[in-house]
Amino acid sequence: MRAVFALAATLLTVFVSAHVSIQPPTAVGNKNAVTAVRVPHAYKGHNTTNVTVLIPKGILSVKPQQMAGWQVKLQSKLNTTTNASVVEAVTWYGGNLPDELYQDFGLQVRVGDLPVGTVLYFPVVQETTNGTLPWTSVPDASGKIPNAGYPAAKLTIVNATTTAPSATNASSNQANTPAAAAKSSSSERHAVASGCLVAAFASLALAVSGP
């Protein structure tokens, strides 16, 4: 049975050769940043139709980029300490991204006052015409990524002098108009993707709380 699972994992790796990532992968604490979630592929020969990004603690505010051909919605929760609404997930949906093309899904964020070296994980659930790709695995208490084949995208906090260029240049051909968004409901999501999101939220909470 283990051999079967190993073979399946090997075959899947053939089709999934690159990971979803944050571009640029660094930002400065206590500042605004323009970044993007880069989706490099889908399953071979299939299209991406939905992309959901979970926003980690440490990101104080989020404004998603309006993408031609896509709609966007925000999932928010109430911060009982500040009594303010906090975005915990952004979903672009209704689009059609072929496997042979990549896309940067832009985010304008406010980064919290975090120490240099802090790593923020952004689990991403990518829905395709051939199923769901759950880029949601974050390090456990020992620092090991349970599902290394599907790591969550990450953003590292650096000094102002070492920060990477803005993602604006990488996505200059895309519209920069802030997107109108509405709260999402669980009924609008596919069952598999919903399960991935629940697991991702749980993993992200563990990563933030630490051992």
UniProtKB/TrEMBL annotation:
Keyword Lipoprotein: no
Protein keywords: Signal
Keyword Iron-sulfur: no
Signal sequence interval, chain numbering: 1-18
One Pfam assignment: DUF1775
Occurrences of domain YncI copper-binding (ranges): 19-157
Gene3D superfamilies: Uncharacterised protein YcnI-like PF07987, DUF1775
InterPro entries: YcnI-copper_dom, YcnI-like_sf
Domain of life: Eukaryota
UniProt-recorded name of the protein: YncI copper-binding domain-containing protein
Upper taxonomic lineage: Eukaryota, Sar, Stramenopiles, Oomycota, Saprolegniomycetes
